[in-house]
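Aim 2, interim progress. The first record below pairs a target sequence with its structure tokens.
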Amino acid sequence: MYFCITQFTMILQSALNQVIETQKANLSQKDAGLKRDALATLPNLSAFALIVSGIRRCGKSTLLFQLLKERYPDALYLNFEDPRLYEFGPTDFARLDESIKASGSNVLFFDEIQIIPEWERYARQKLDEDYKLVITGSNASLLSRELGTRLTGRHITKELFPFSYHEFCTFKELSYDKSSLLSYLELGGFPEYLKQGIPEILNQLFEDILIRDIAVRYSIRDVTTLKRLAFYLLSNVSKLITGNRLKTLFEIGSTSTVMEYLSHLEYSYLLQFVPKFSYSLRKQIANPRKVYAIDTGLINVNSGSFSEDNGRKFENLIYLHLRQKYREIYYFAEKNECDFVIINNSKLVEAVQVCFELNPDNINRELDGVVEALTFFAAHEGFIVTLDQTDRLEKNGKVVHVVPAYHYVSKL
């Protein structure tokens, strides 16, 4: 389902009112689903619009419904992807104003409003009129980097991800253990896929993001190369990539075009790119970056990776856990490599090495990587996250805790 709205036919006031009423009735009968951990972190509404952003199908609309049911049961709710609103255009906002006045509510929940041109002006208007406003939508149109100019800073953006390991275990009624961790590694956290188990759900999601959120939005004509690039990156998570290397590999005209593609893939939340740590921003940009996907189930269904890639997908899983807690994540590489260093105000928060299974062949390499990072940042303790091992290692005055992933990622 794609939207390319170039001409508008006015919608009748009576039709708009009917949509609002039927959507409200449908909401009252809807199952709230698994209560998302993110619900507790959402702020109370004030003079700022609350923007919930995230990849498609991760549960943004469900989170909005849970927020409405728990805190704002009298809010006016409108989902703009309703087929009856396909003809809704900017001139119809005046009719929406009439519906809002008739409702008597000062809290507005707008789902997928970004498909309507000039929605930003309307949102700002409602804020100026002292309405409380919550907006969700596909991240391709609700990027925080764009909202600064659209709402002139009057917004708070919250990210939503597919189910965390904690939510996965709650949903599946599983314990935190090796078995459930491996199941999460295979299935990932997209709610609808976990409910139905149909791989085509994740196939279609992958396709929708590439076509709807990227190719159509950014007028990319060479969709085949975009798909090949995305497939390659999804099949090579946890590996180092460079624009020049990808340009050569896919015979793309320029490195700048490659970097544009990578930017689109990142801002759609499909893929994330982790830079090498350096106090120099120029060096961060120049060095290779590591690529990670938004969900391990998405990797398994849509990529060419195989079971022997569990180590790299396992590292991806740990990255996703860290990404939901922190924004400033790097890999560290001097003589040895440490998979993740978390930085806040130029100080180390956490040094994390990821190893599916420690053994005599790799223990020195894994330990040296985290110890070198700890030494560089003058820190004392770090972690090696494994599938199912527990230990306490010491080297050069540094303490490294070996922990099972199902303990490490069970809580945010």
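The second target in this work package is listed in the same format:
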Amino acid sequence: MAKTCADLFEGFNCTILGNPSEEVSGIAYRSNRVQPGDAFFCIVGLAVDGHSFAQDAIDRGAKVLIVERKLYLADATDVTEVVVADSRKALAYAAAQFYDNPSRAFSLVGVTGTNGKTTTTYLVEHIARMAGKKTGVIGTVGTTIGDVHEKSEHTTPESSDLQHLFARMRDAKCDCVAMEVSSHALDLCRTWDTRFSVTAFTNLTQDHLDYHHTFEAYFEAKALLFSHDYPARRVICIDDKWGAELNRRCTEAGDMVVTTGFDESAAIHPVKVDYGVARTDVVLSVRGEETAFSYPLVGRFNVSNIMTAFGVGLMLGIPAADIAKSLEDASPVPGRLERVRTPHDGGVSVYVDYAHTPDALEKALGSIMALGHGRTIVVFGCGGNRDAGKRPLMGKKALAADYAIVTSDNPRHENPDAIIADIVAGMGDSQDKYEIVPDRRSAIRRAIELADANTSVLIAGKGHEDYQLVGDEVLSFDDRVVAREELERRFVGAAAEAN
């Protein structure tokens, strides 16, 4: 596969200094990954300027440089430079051109919001697959193409990686792809020049303010997916003011919108909900018609996810009856209120959830407590080098449980004790309701030791992750595996004595 400079930037505002017919055999934005014949994009990053690595890229064989300013390099006399105003947009645009605009080959669903993105994309994928479509998923848990699952580094990959992934999905004959779209990805133009069929909004609560700084900026980043730059059919949950504002904007723009929410004004809203231990029975009003079904997810927040996915299904042209039928056997999402199963649990119900924001922790706890399993114990921490403002809020929300154990999450390059101090600052004078156990395995063990029959334990923050980030180390650690081991350690002896 090769394209000329003229091919890559046709229709894009740029100035080509050199040979427009120069062939490009690959696209790179990291100089250490440049292959001979690649075009190297000098991305102006938050901490590093890619222009500083242009010479290294040339030394490795790059014949084309995409720059925001003309470079004068001693060894660049035969190198073509493409001068652009925004190297990130240029990377996204050129990548889409290089792979022949693959997002136009299937129905692409983009889901954004603070919480619920992963679950919603998995539900959308299930609905589409049950409708006979070949599907793909891109998000936090990883990438799935048909039946093949792969790990991924980012919720939404960098634009050139994303377009390559779209091309693989196109070549695999996918009909429908559901993708999580992060606020970072939108702000950094990773999805620029991608064509969406449907875009969906779940909610907005505090997260990533270390990057966006204000709620308003965070919202505007999310709102980009609903702007004229990304024309599509819209599904918007209007349970918070941010969703209501998005609905107002999209309605004024003449977009086709389906609203969801618990309020009766939403086009899709619940008429009746019965929460069970393993399933939820719901009657939804769908554009005025009632649809009753049962699905294997629990909690009020999953009703929201179900409604959003239902709306997306409608926007994809799938009949309401078929959507409801498909959701009857939807698979649980890894690390999302996932029940830890083991032969010896002593009557203790252990759930692992990805909840790492105040709102998500509150909802996960509320869902478990609504099941009526007696006492609830929560084990949680906060990630390092991330939004520190949410730490005391997480601590305050954790007090809804009968008892909380504050521990380490992914401390990264921060001192775990300092992170914990930030958390407990929000827990006030409630020392009798929590304790601090910095080692995560020890914290999980402590929670299970404190648990009696009919106690529920929520282990929050890491969900599906099978690692822990400590400094520069990536340690093997899976909450689900550790909880299973600790349950067996405590109760296997008791089971043997009982027999």
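The CA atoms of residues 129 and 487 lie 36 Å apart. This observation will shape the mutagenesis plan for the next reporting period.
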